[in-house]
Every structure is written in C-alpha cells, then in structure tokens.
Amino acid sequence: MIVANVRSRLTREDVGLALSLVAQSGTEARDRSETTLQEQGVDALLDDPALLPALVGTPRGAHASLPLFAYVVVRQALLQGGEGDRVLADYAAAILLHFGLRDRATRVAESDDETYDTLAGLLAAAEGPDARRNFLVQAHLGNYALWMSGLFPDHIAHRQYRRGGPPLDYFEQLGRRGFQLAASHRLANEHGLALLFALAAERFPVVRIALNRISDALLFPHQHSPDRLMRQVRDEARWRRPD
C-alpha cells in the first residue's frame, strides 16, 4: 500500500541538487542554504521558498529526480495553504508518484487483479469479508478521490456539465469518507497510519486545493474555462479555512 516514504527515498544527489538550486540566487542564498542544511537538516532546506522557482524555472531544475520534484511541489503548495505537516505532504507526493505509474490508480494494490474506475465501486467494496482488503480499499477510496479531484478537476467539471457526472464536492465527500474508514480500521493502528489517515480526512479540502494549484500551473497551464475560473474563485475563499 502507499505510505509516506518520498522523503526517505531522497538521495545525497537530490540534496546536493537542492542545495545548488537554492544557491543559484547568489552568494547570500548559498551561504544561507548551507547554514540551513547544517543546522536544521534536509527538511528545512526543502522548505526554502527559493527551491521551487529554481526547480520549475531553471535548466538545472530539469535534472531533479521525480521524488525530489514531487515532494517539493506538494510541500510548497501545502505551505501556501497554511498546512505545515510534512508527513501529509510526503503522503500526497507518494500518491502522485504511485498513481502516475501505468494503471496503479485503478488498483487497490499492485498485485490486485480487480480494477475500479468509480468511487461508488470502491465504496461498495469497502465492507467485504476480508478485513485486510477492506482496509486497502478504504485507503484507496481516499487516495483515488484525492488523485482525481486534485489533478483533474477540469475533467470532473467537464463530465459533470456535459455528461451528468458527479461534482467536485462528491469526490471530496467520498474521499474524506474513505480516509475516515481507513483511520478507524484496526490495521491502521497496527501499521501506525491511523493519525495520518485521520489528518488526510480532516485536511482533504486543503490538500485537494493545493493539488489543483499544481495541476493548473504545471500540468494544464494553457487550459482556461469559466468552470476553472469559478473553481479558483470559490477555492480561494476556502484556502486556509477548510470545512
């Protein structure tokens, strides 16, 4: 199952690149970043506000590994929304990395033969005879809802207005429900995931909006529509004030 392990996958090369990217701003930035790394550690370096612009806007940033890029982009977006929990950022980045591989987004586990492409199907499968699989399905319900509503909100809006699909609020509601179910499952306590899933349920809107901003700016920057504008205006009012 997906766990918050993106930071632990970062290599010395990743740290060196992050340091050099921040240092591009000049001698003062280089000295500050080196001091930050020595005195506060890697996490503080990855939080440096100069790192994200260097990652996405300079040639050297193109050499970043996927774990480094995913974590920094998600972490910085969440910080802008007032969410400072690093484990939550790590987990959201892990979802992006895992679900970007082949058909992983539609499977509750890599070795699971069953595929799901609707939240209703996942919800229906969340209470079966196999406790372990129930737990995986519940967590996947939250993960899949976050993946879809976070990275593809325009697709959801298109399907809603053109084909009668469910709205974005539906994805939030069921995503939070999936994480709540997973947090209350006994296996969540056994694996030390109960607090993370509970936080993911509570902060789902903030994480979703953060991923929307990433999607709008980096994945689909040239797509413009009234639906996107209305979503952005509505979400701006919710930013820092989740339901």
Q: Would you spell out the secondary-structure blueprint of this structure?
A:
Blueprint: H1 12-23, H2 27-40, H3 42-46, H4 51-57, H5 66-80, H6 86-99, H7 119-124, H8 131-151, H9 153-163, H10 168-184, H11 186-190, H12 194-202, H13 204-219, H14 226-238
Helix pairs in contact: 1-2, 5-6, 5-13, 8-10, 8-13, 10-12
- Report the structural category: mainly alpha
Q: Classify the beta-strand content into a percent band.
A: under 5%
**Total domain units:** 2
User: Terminal Cα separation, in Å?
Assistant: 28 Å
**What general outline do the C-alpha atoms trace?**
globular
Could you list some keywords that capture this structure?
about 70% helix, about 240 residues, mainly alpha, 2 domains, globular
In short:
The protein has 243 residues and is an all-alpha fold. The chain is built from 14 helices and no strands. It has two domains: 1-101, no CATH class; 113-243, no CATH class.
Description:
With 243 residues, this protein is an all-alpha fold. It folds into two domains: 1-101, no CATH class; 113-243, no CATH class. Helices cover 68% and strands 0% of the residues. The protein has 14 helices and no strands. The chain has helices at residues 12-23, 27-40, 42-46, 51-57, 66-80, 86-99, 119-124, 131-151, 153-163, 168-184, 186-190, 194-202, 204-219, 226-238. Helix 1 packs antiparallel against helix 2 (27-40). The longest helix has 21 residues, at 131-151. The radius of gyration is 19 Å and the shape is globular.
